[in-house]
């Protein structure tokens, strides 16, 4: 859409569920959206950037109750904290919506009543599985794990997220999703870039639409914290329907003033994590179809920011919060790292080592060194003055051509949300500018009276290169470009033409260049980050068993030798046995019979198991490299101060105990069944 002389650009993040403190994983999505919003503004677009909080649902009601607060008090507190975080990260959103906002609630009520009147929503009874943690309904076939009783009846299970589900039976309003399935598939075909990356589209079609799109329960009656349906107020609107509608209610849809909606809708792109692509590419477009509203142009489902041991999780104790990194290393290092190191669209892995290396090599060495060398030479050779940019050396043309190609590549990548590639192209140009110094040798030109004009031009080329770099990184790094311009004596509000040769000559650089990214002691800083993570782990009880879990573990230990003559097949089916490779083994401290095993169970995270078999394996080092069988879904036990996460299988006959092993053709993590 175009307003006046400007094209509009509407971008959204998911609205965040305030059930806990946000991590760098949540910040990743928001910084990515902010990066795109800033880039589009710089390119002359009229941008509207929306983010906010999703504040209804049973989980919020339970969280507030646990904290002895009213739900509204709780979400007010959490929304304030999220706003503070976005301020810290310098997120440039144009609006922050809360699903408890009056205008949103009224619009949702009006929309749901309209859908009931049209016949797309009908009253029925829901019987099925629901995860409170995910605020999501599941069919039996969609559960990652199913629990059955002795007769084979399903009595529970786990959602794909790993959260427990419970059986729900209650009156509910249903949306006729199946009515729109064919129309949705046709939209996918007619708009091949609607879902990106393409792998997400294939998942939606194969996993949810082709098996048969079931009607969706869109109301609940077993709790009150939600938007009541006016014509039937004992029902509150399903939190996901409530949440999805924020993208249009924030623009005034359903109100008396739809000016913003008319101006910015449809959204150009909606950034979401891959775990909620289904809601945004199946339920959301179908609701819009039913309302007769144009669909968003694109939904981009990015990957997860993982840790070495998998997805960031408070229960694992592997959480990294943005505040701890910003406080220690500044905002720009975090924003740069997330946009450069994480492949947008795919999963990426955060490690303290990589984080520190990016600061040292990319920011301090490459960019910081170029800036410091340039300013120091201008002060030393030209009295701090930038006077000309003329092509006088054999290397000038090559540098200018490199800048032009970089700007072209940068724009192409940014337009496709390929932020790591865009930054990689900028850093390649930084490398080219550093090489230019070595090629032109300003220190030799300074000694040659005939080289005075050439020296001035070389230094001008370097200033111009830095100006372009600062402009290109500005959508990602909000503070460093300001510092670069200030040290170069340039006006960041005026010298904004992204084209080589537009520097304001005659300016004066700073007399005392200050490193914008001081080099870090890698060993010290890696330890600092790991220590901070450990503090958070301890604070959140990571790695510890609750009292109830400890009681269960003790009961399990007490009953370890009491084997019944017969067990049901379903009981046996609950035992998960996998192939593990022994990575290391040693005698456990303070225990004569215990061996302490480190195992590769195929998950990418070392598993520790203690086993009382030292007397049978005095040459235990010979076990390293062998593949054994471990039961991996036993409750963890603490033995002589060390956690044992599972049990190794062995055979026992008379006085002989032998570990059960398999040959190397079995892959680590393979399940025995």
UniProtKB/TrEMBL annotation:
Organism superkingdom: Bacteria
Gene this protein is translated from: metG
General function of this protein: Is required not only for elongation of protein synthesis but also for the initiation of all mRNA translation through initiator tRNA(fMet) aminoacylation.
Protein name: Methionine--tRNA ligase
Quaternary structure, from the entry: Homodimer.
UniProt keywords, alphabetically: Aminoacyl-tRNA synthetase, ATP-binding, Cytoplasm, Ligase, Nucleotide-binding, Protein biosynthesis, RNA-binding, tRNA-binding
Keyword Acetylation attached: no
Enzyme Commission (EC) number: 6.1.1.10
Alphabetized SUPFAM superfamilies for the sequence: Anticodon-binding domain of a subclass of class I aminoacyl-tRNA synthetases, Nucleic acid-binding proteins, Nucleotidylyl transferase
InterPro entries referenced in this protein's UniProt entry, alphabetically: aa-tRNA-synth_I_CS (IPR001412), Anticodon_Met (IPR041872), M/V/L/I-tRNA-synth_anticd-bd (IPR013155), Met-tRNA-synth_bsu_C (IPR004495), Met-tRNA_synth (IPR014758), Met-tRNA_synth_2 (IPR023457), Methionyl/Leucyl_tRNA_Synth (IPR015413), MetRS_core (IPR033911)
Compartmental location: Cytoplasm
Catalytic activity: tRNA(Met) + L-methionine + ATP = L-methionyl-tRNA(Met) + AMP + diphosphate
Single GO molecular function: methionine-tRNA ligase activity
């Amino acid at each position: 859409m175009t307003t006046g002389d400007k094209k509009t650009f509407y971008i959204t993040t998911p609205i965040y569920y305030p059930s806990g403190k946000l991590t760098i994983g949540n910040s990743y999505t928001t910084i990515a959206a902010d990066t795109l919003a800033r880039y589009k503004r710089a390119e002359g677009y009229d941008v509207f950037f929306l983010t906010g909080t999703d504040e209804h649902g049973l989980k919020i009601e339970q969280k507030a109750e646990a904290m002895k607060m009213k739900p509204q008090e709780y979400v007010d507190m959490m929304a304030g904290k999220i706003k503070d975080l976005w301020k810290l990260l310098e997120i440039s959103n144009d609006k922050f919506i809360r699903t408890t906002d009056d205008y949103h609630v009224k619009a949702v009520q009006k929309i749901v009543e309209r859908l009931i009147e049209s016949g797309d929503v009908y009253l029925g009874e829901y019987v099925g599985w629901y995860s409170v943690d995910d605020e999501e309904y599941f069919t039996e076939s969609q559960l990652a794990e199913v629990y059955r009783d002795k007769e084979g009846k399903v009595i529970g299970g786990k959602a794909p997220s790993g959260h427990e589900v419970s059986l729900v039976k209650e009156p509910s309003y249903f949306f006729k999703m199946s009515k729109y399935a064919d129309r949705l598939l046709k939209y996918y075909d007619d708009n091949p870039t609607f879902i990106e990356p393409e792998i997400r589209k294939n998942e939606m079609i194969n996993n949810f639409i082709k098996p048969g799109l079931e009607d969706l329960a869109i109301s609940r009656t077993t709790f009150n914290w939600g938007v009541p349906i006016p014509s039937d107020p004992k029902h509150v609107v399903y939190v996901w329907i409530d949440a999805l509608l924020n993208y249009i209610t924030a623009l005034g849809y359903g109100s008396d003033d739809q000016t913003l909606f008319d101006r910015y809708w449809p959204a150009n792109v909606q950034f979401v994590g891959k775990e909620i692509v289904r809601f945004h590419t199946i339920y959301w477009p179908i609701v819009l179809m039913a309302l007769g509203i144009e669909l968003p142009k694109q939904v981009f489902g990015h990957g997860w920011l993982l840790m070495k041991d998998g997805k960031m999780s408070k229960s694992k104790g592997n959480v990294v919060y943005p505040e701890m990194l910003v406080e220690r290393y500044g905002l720009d290092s975090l924003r740069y790292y997330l946009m450069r190191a994480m492949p947008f669209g795919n999963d990426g892995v955060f490690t303290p080592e990589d984080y520190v290396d990016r600061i040292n090599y990319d920011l301090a060495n490459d960019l910081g060194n170029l800036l410091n060398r340039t300013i120091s030479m201008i002060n030393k050779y030209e009295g701090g003055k930038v006077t000309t940019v003329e092509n006088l050396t054999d290397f000038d043309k090559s540098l200018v051509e490199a800048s032009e190609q970089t700007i072209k590549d940068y724009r192409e990548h940014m337009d496709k949300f390929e932020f790591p590639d865009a930054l990689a192209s900028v850093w390649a140009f930084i490398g080219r500018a550093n090489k230019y110094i070595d090629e032109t040798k300003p220190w030799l030109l300074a000694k040659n009276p005939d080289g005075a004009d050439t020296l001035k031009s070389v230094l001008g080329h370097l200033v111009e290169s830095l100006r372009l770099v600062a402009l290109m990184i500005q959508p990602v790094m909000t503070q460093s470009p300001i510092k670069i311009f200030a040290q170069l004596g340039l006006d960041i509000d005026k010298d904004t033409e992204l084209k080589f040769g537009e520097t304001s000559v005659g300016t004066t650089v700073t007399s005392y260049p200050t490193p914008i990214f001081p080099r870090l002691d890698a060993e010290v800083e890696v330890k600092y980050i790991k220590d901070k993570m450990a503090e958070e782990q301890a604070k959140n009880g990571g790695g510890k068993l609750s009292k109830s879990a400890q009681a269960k573990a003790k009961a399990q230990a007490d009953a370890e030798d009491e084997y019944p003559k017969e067990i049901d097949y379903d009981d046996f089916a609950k035992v998960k046995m996998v192939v593990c490779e022994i990575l290391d083994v040693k005698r456990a401290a303070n225990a004569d019979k215990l061996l302490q095993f480190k195992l590769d169970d195929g998950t990418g995270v070392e598993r520790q198991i203690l086993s009382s078999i030292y007397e049978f394996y005095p040459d235990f080092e010979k076990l390293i490299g062998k593949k054994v069988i471990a039961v991996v879904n036993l409750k963890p036990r603490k033995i002589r101060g060390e956690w044992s996460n599972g049990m190794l299988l062995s055979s026992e006959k008379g006085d002989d105990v032998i570990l059960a092993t398999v040959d190397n053709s079995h892959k680590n993590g393979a399940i025995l069944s």
